[in-house]
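ok so i was messing around last nite and threw this chain in just to see what happens. nothing serious, just curious
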Amino acid sequence: MKRLYNKGIRFGHTIYVYREIDSTQNKAQELAREGATEGIIIFATTQKKGRGRESKVWVSDKGGLYFSIIYCPNISLTDASALTKTIGLIIKRAIENIVSKFMTIELKVKGVNDLMLNNRKVAGILVETTTTGSERPDFYIIGIGININQKHFPRHYESIATSLQLETGRKFSRYKILKAICETLSISLPE
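result:
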């Protein structure tokens, strides 16, 4: 594990980087319970037990962008699905801006937590909350998985999953996409 620091940014000021981890969500929840500050990111090259909504597995092989963010707003967000949809739109905009330098793509938000490209899943979002008895959650853990440079998927996911590289024929910098998402989240999410 190593730490990266980005001064002056609300989300991503501190990034814990792991080659492999069970789940970025689990690690972020652990750190949040221990008092970690808002904006810390847990990033992994691969996850052994990456997960999506409803306990579904999120395949987290090399080439993707897998991270979780600790978010502690001072307001009560009563609808986590609205937060998830907002984050989906932010991720959509960040990815489209980066890819648009080379070509035009159209990502679609499906439901509240999936980003689709050519009718296959390219990204997923998981928002989990923890409370200690108050009506307002103590913190939100925002998990994001984006298929960026994968060249193939396990057979049972081939028809439903894709990556930016498979769809565009180009490799993309995971760091640039992470940075664009962090910058947009920093100005778009309520404090």
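not much to say yet. The domain at 2-188 is CATH 3.30.930.10 (BirA Bifunctional Protein; domain 2).
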